[in-house]
Amino acid sequence: MVEVPETLPARMYLLAYDLRKQRMTARGARLGYVLRGAALTELFLDGRLEELRGRPVPGTPGADPYGLVAQISASKPRPWHHWVRREARTAVRTVRDELERGGWIRVRGRRVLGLFPAEEVTVRDPRVVKQLWGGASSALRGRPVAHVNSYDAAAVALAAAGELKSVLPGPERRRHRRRIAELTARSGPAAPAVRKVIRSQRAAAAASS
């Protein structure tokens, strides 16, 4: 079995990579929402965050790799979607740098049309993405939800919420709507918050157009 990153945000970043097209299928704020949601989900599943009146609160003390527990502890109570939205673009850079340092990806600068700076991300070992995709695919189609690996269940929930086409194209999301809902319920409040933020952003864009 191929080794995969330990953290859920790192896994979701790699799942957003399309092996066939050799590029990221989600970028910017939307990818950041998924990664923030992944970090919140990881903390919730590990008991380091709990929910009180629809809001995250610190739970059992432990590691806080992305500093979210510290942020939540220092703030007045706010809903999950606030923490999904906050510093989303920073989350992309943080997780990207983590993966680059760990040797999972290669990042190269380039210029679009010779003018605009951009980044080209390449996964060093495609088997890692295939392994992660296989876990998500198994969660979607395999054993009873209660027996699915918690990170695989969360990967499906977050991929559906973030509309990651590399994992769940639109037809697949519709075909497996009930199963996705069950995996989302298993994974905690952060994935629905990601979906809420993305839909709200889309509605705001439509209203301004």
Automatic annotation (TrEMBL):
Superkingdom, natural source: Bacteria
Subcellular location: Golgi apparatus membrane
Pfam families hit by this protein: GPP34
This protein's UniProt keywords: Golgi apparatus, Lipid-binding, Membrane
Statement: the UniProt record of this protein carries the keyword 4Fe-4S: no
Coiled-coil blocks: none
Listed name of the protein: GPP34 family phosphoprotein
Species of the source: Actinomadura nitritigenes
